[in-house]
What we know:
This protein is an alpha+beta fold.
Amino acid sequence: MSKPVKKLIRDELIKRFDGVTQLAIVGFTGVDANSTNAIRARLAEKGIRVSVVKNSLAKQAFRQLGLQDAGELLDGPCAVAYGADSVVTVVRELLDIGKEAPNLKVKAAFMEGDVFTEDKIHALSKYPTQEEAIGQVISCVLSAGANLAACLIAPGGQIAGILKGIEENASAEAEGDAEGDAEADAEAPAAEEAADEAVAAN
């Protein structure tokens, strides 16, 4: 392959993977052409793209895109799968397809700087997708606000009871302060009288 052709391919890979931060490395060895086309079509329906790459050129392209760690995952005949809402969705779909096409292998994955080797792929498939993670956050927020919401929609009698309790506590504190002031006022003249007697004696 001539240098100009290599440059064209490398530039095309840079353009294709620009902005990609999550991907999976797939092995198609032993998968026939018809099955490969069917797999591509099924993945495309999920918004997942598959690109067969020449490892040396892909590594150069990935290095230029700051994906050198992902480039190190390229080993032997392989393709790069990417797209959907996250690589978790990509891996789940590939593993599901692998049940029908045993020769299809998910060799590795890369997600936001983290590398997942083949022995960690099943664990990655258990991660929540972006949509699932958002749902979990919303669920936590709603759960944390449940008590407040219950108070806000509680019958008027319950809210009145809460307000009455707050008022009673405030009244009790005010009475305590008033008694303290009264005692202080009563003690003040006596203290002054004692001081006057002491001065007169001197």
